[in-house]
Amino acid sequence: MEESVDENKGGHEVMKTVHVDLKDRSYDIHIGNEILGKTGKILRDLNFAKRGIVISSPKILALHGKRLFDSLRSANVLVETIAIPEGERHKTLSTAEAIYKKLVRFRVDRKTLLIAFGGGLIGDIVGFVGATFLRGIPYVQIPTTLLAQLDSSIGGKTGVNLSEGKNLVGAFHQPKSVIIDPLMLVTLPQREFCSGVYEAIKYGVIRSASLFDLIDRKHSRFPQEDKNGLEKMIVDCVRIKADVVSKDEHESQLRMILNFGHTIGHALEAATKYSKLTHGEAIGHGMIMATQLAVKLGKIDAVEALKIQEVIARIAVLPSLHSLKWRQIFQHMRLDKKFMEDRLQFVIPVKIGQVEIYPDTPRETVEEVIQSYLHAQC
Q: Is the pTM higher than 0.85?
């Protein structure tokens, strides 16, 4: 991973660039306030095709579409648009098929650039379509939610959900570039913003005590009151993910640490039919339970574990899980990609800033922790 900083001519706005080093699949992540209006120049400098298909949601297009389209057209990029519905329940093969059919109508070829303009759902679906349509076409990510900016837009994981579980159909397909404008987050609903903060906490727990402290001290001032602090939080998360992905693209070992909170979190999303919890909220619950599991396994000091749980709880009130049962959650955990050879694999914290992969977690211990957590929700 390499990093550079570029200033505009006035010297006031700074665009930070983090490099993801994957040899012939390498790309840059550009981060800076108001850089959405520079998208056309960024893509032109990369010598991308003169034709782009923007795939987004009606809401995002209404809020931010004009700035993106003006920038692309100023760079002489011919733009066409596909709008798809929002919501995790639409992250399906049927939505991907609808996009495929429109791409056929638009006579898209392997030189056409797909532009994912939206949150994690948009990015995952567009990446999956890019990986599979015509056996692979290029795409870029322009994430518009905090969760997508600091996590899901980076690393090339793409996919769609089945009713049985999250992201069970997918592919690794790296973007050609990621363009992150934190100022777009000002229009994000508070619940969606907090959803991203939970994911940021994950990065603090797995790799950076200083990032964890930054989030604890300043999250209540984001995004309106402390735009520089918000940008720093995003950059720190991006640096961590870029470093991990550069060392382990296909999740053979190191990249698994990014799944802290996700083994249970994904199961919670599936068990509630992707309608009750945001992704970040599910991960918030999952991180708390994974931390309690670490205590039960004797892997973390109780005081340190309590601090993790308290910081997560201070972000916002997590939706109650009182209606869920252990069997529902376990059923979906068994279908998760991280459930291997009938073994429960967890990422658990050993201290703030460090985690370990626990490859064979006793089912009875996991059940005890989850049952206790669910009981406390009543």
A: yes
Active-site residue (options: 173, 241, 285, 296)? 241
Cross-strand bridge partners of residue 361: 344
Catalytic residue among 259, 269, 281, 296: 259
Q: What is the pLDDT of residue 252?
A: 81
The answer to whether 255 is a known catalytic residue is yes
pLDDT, tens digit (0-9, with 9 covering 90-100), for 40-95: 999 988 877 789 999 999 999 999 999 999 999 999 999 999 999 988 889 999 99
Regions in the chain scoring below 70 on pLDDT? 1-13, 337-342
| Residue 199 among the catalytic residues | yes
**What tokens does 41 get?**
């120049």
CATH class as words, domain 2-188: alpha beta
Strands (E), 39-125: 51-56, 78-83, 113-118
Q: Are 29 and 57 in contact (CB under 8 A)?
A: no
Domain residue ranges of the chain, discontinuous segments joined by +: 2-188, 190-378
Which residue of the set 64, 157, 166, 332 is catalytic? 157
Catalytic residue among 166, 176, 279, 285: 279
Marked catalytic residue, from 9, 23, 135, 327: 135
Would you call the peptide bond into 58 cis, given omega within 30 degrees of 0 as the criterion? no
Q: CATH number of the domain at 190-378, out of 3.30.530.20, 1.20.1090.10, 3.40.50.2300, 3.40.190.10?
A: 1.20.1090.10
CA–CA gap between residue 106 and residue 119 (Å, rounded):
24
Residue 114 backbone dihedrals phi, psi, to 5 degrees: -85, 140
Whether residue 157 lies in the annotated active site: yes
279 is catalytic: yes
Specify the 3-state DSSP secondary structure of 232. Answer: helix
Residue 367 CA: distances (Å) to CA of 110, 327, 371: 48, 9, 6
Q: Do 112 and 50 form a contact (C-beta atoms < 8 A)?
A: no
Amino acid 10: pLDDT: 44
